[in-house]
Fold each of these.
Amino acid sequence: MAIDSQLFKRVLGAFASGVTVVTTLDPGGRPLGMTVSAFSSVSLDPPLVLVCIDLTAECHPVLLAAGRFAVNILGQDQREVSRRFATKGLDRFDGVPSRPGATGMPLLDGALGVLECRTVAAHPAGDHTIFVGEVEAAAAGAEPPLLYCSGRYGRFSPLA
């Protein structure tokens, strides 16, 4: 029994998530990236994470071929970075400070946390591919995260 796609989107939109930018390098060494909210930890031992990438995304074939990616977890002041990496048809890295990480993956300056991963599995799943990465390098900051829910950005306010 299939459910209505608009209802499905509305229900999923009620789930608050953090915001990440997944980055990689194309075969010529050019950095590519895209905003991704479908991110999760999978395992502590070994350290595994997953990201879900739409089959039509520009980065999809590059991620399949590259065998590596980085997850940049955005902080609450990085709304514009999230919007930029969600926009098609432009050089998303233009004007966005970044640097190569320990594994060479592009890391965004100011990210709350970064995870550099080696792809260990790519599972077809409907109109997406689930990429599972083993974390080979990581760094964490102390800023609050950028949140996304019901089509809007928000901030985390810890309870006292």
Amino acid sequence: MKIVSFMCVYNDHEYLDQAIESFKNYPDILYIIEGSWQSSQKFDAASRSNELVYDIINKHVDNKKVFLIQANEPREKDQRNIGLELAKQHDADWCHMLDADEVYTPKTLDLIKRWLNRAPDGILGYKLLSFNFINSFKKWYDGKYMRIYKVTPKCHFYMDNDVAWPDKEGIISAIPGPRSFYHYNYVRKNVDSFWLKMKYQNDQDPTMWKRFIESGQYKEENGIYTIPDSCQIYKYTGKHPKIMKNHPYFQNDVFGDGEIEYE
């Protein structure tokens, strides 16, 4: 079984080092696909990420297992299709996508790999459960995301997270057991990335701004985020990945969480 993974990143450095480090020994090959989408450049996004991002990328790229690809495709799905096409070139069985703010533990990656090894033929992809943290490392809401895709000659992203398989029939499933990753998507100081994403999504769906931003369902004020009430927020009483122990946000208690436990 071969797993080829990819991460798309643009000016998102806050958890990038830990995301790559926690993940890079799991797949056979990891591609870091860096660059803004052409559709976001109308909002003054530069084509390449800043120096903070490249300092981290250069730390991990070895051109043996971890590779850098620079790209500026029209939209997010097109950027992700680069990763899927690379997986095809390597005759991969599975393509595992991750974001720059997602951190895995060795235990969950081992579970995922064992699950993929015995996956039945009719499975086209897997959703993974996650802890999504918001405004605190002790507050989270439920996440369930498509992250793993069966590689076939004609598979392709037709939306930002969704893949079509014209050449294979099957179903999407979910990997059971403990939550697979820690998603630090709303515990951040880089508010520019949030607003760039909102503008991009509104460009795809011009009704989005009125429905979600003007209505106050999604909001950012002074680095504090609001999400829809339908996303129930829970108190987190578990442990964070050991790799996060030296992250400056944890070390300096940036979000006022007090003592944090680690696996």
Amino acid sequence: MKKIMMILVLVLTVSTTFAFKNKEVISKQAVNAFRNEFARATDVAWTVGKSYYKVAFTLDDQKLFAYYNSQGEFIALSRFISSSQLPLNLHSSLKKLYYNYWISDLFEMTTNDATDYYVTFENADAKIVLKSTDGSNWSLYQKTNKV
């Protein structure tokens, strides 16, 4: 019985050590900036990118994503939206231009300076990403052909 307990303790110690070994540390400045801006946020989850931190969280029943640099400076805030939440001119132009595609992704990205919209259209042959800066017309952001 003692051997089993010792082995169990050893396994738990080793697995716990490895579980926390590769955890990246989030800068205190970024955490503080987030807490100051989004004090009522729930379900907070941090991800470390190459040169930024991404924070996924819920606020007022909406899933949001905030981005900060390592100095804690706000980069952007994004959220998934429906096409009905687009400005009217953007919404109506989507129906006209891409009636034979379906929308697979649509989100709003807000920085200190602007609000941009990104929409991804797909059909059997292609995937098209459009971008609109400040609610103006759509422009082609990326196009890829499906194989």
Amino acid sequence: MSLALHYSICPVYVASHAAHDLGFLREELERVGAALTPLSTLPDGQAPVAHARHNQEYQVRDGGNIPALWARAEHADTVLVGSTHVQAGGQLVVRVEDDIRRVQDLAGRRFGLSKSLDTRRVDWWRANSQRNAGLALGLAGLGWNDVETIDIEHGLPVQGTRGGQDWEGRSKQDIVFKLPFTPEFAALADGRVDAIYTTQGRAEIYERSGQFRVIEDLARYPDWTLQLAASPYTLAVSPALARERRDVVVAWLCANLRAARWIAANPDAAARLLHRHVYHETVADVAAQIARIDFAPSLSPFNLTGLQIGADFLHTAGYTTNRVDVAAWLDASFLDEALATLPADA
């Protein structure tokens, strides 16, 4: 009987999207007797929880590092087998008509932060916003005590993983303006707050509506540690999968390595493919992004340092009770085997 491999892929720039759509994952997994089973096949309401907690016996999760780090710290002895660095620090956004031109002008103003009421999962968007908006404030000589933090509560399920949300036939503006995990956008639009944080192409969509302005962009600084918005993205597997079905993990990595090579060789087609899976509004926007990304899964010292910075923030800020040691989390032998066994022309 074929092993049912539960999986989820965040709507971010990772090779797993191309590996899936091009059939590489299916091909590689079939060779080792495994079949893809999206988390969306779980009973109602369980998929978003499984995506965050990594609680399925045989599971692969590729995407933003905050849920992966939280799962490792609090719930599951997962194994990190790859990562993808994407420089995306994010932006601070205000209404176009407001008298806020610099971050310094936010002193005494209302800053909106999303607050999830779903205690089953880490509040990943709040954590992402809190870290990166805090960095932006700090660059302007401000701190959280200098602004009025307004919590924008929501209890809707966070979707967006493969199988969890159908984007077909919807414009990116419609998707971004209605994301359940970013309710602070609506609060900014209707005047309940004066500024918010966002990233992953959403700021461009806000600005193109003619209603909003970016007053700070962390991408403009040379300091790469200011550009870790849930990146490096993490490819993590469940402990049972790593322990019992090493061949399946290696097969996934082989598929992703093939996809990374295809993206590098076919940037225009890759931009069209990935445009279906990420938030950036146009194919041209996506093309500009992927030109700067190495999609091959990596466990480089650079990526691991970025992950440790994220892990330490989550612990210091109280999102995890246990500290993640990234060096103890990873196992490079799976990626080494995939690199050694994959033909050069695959």
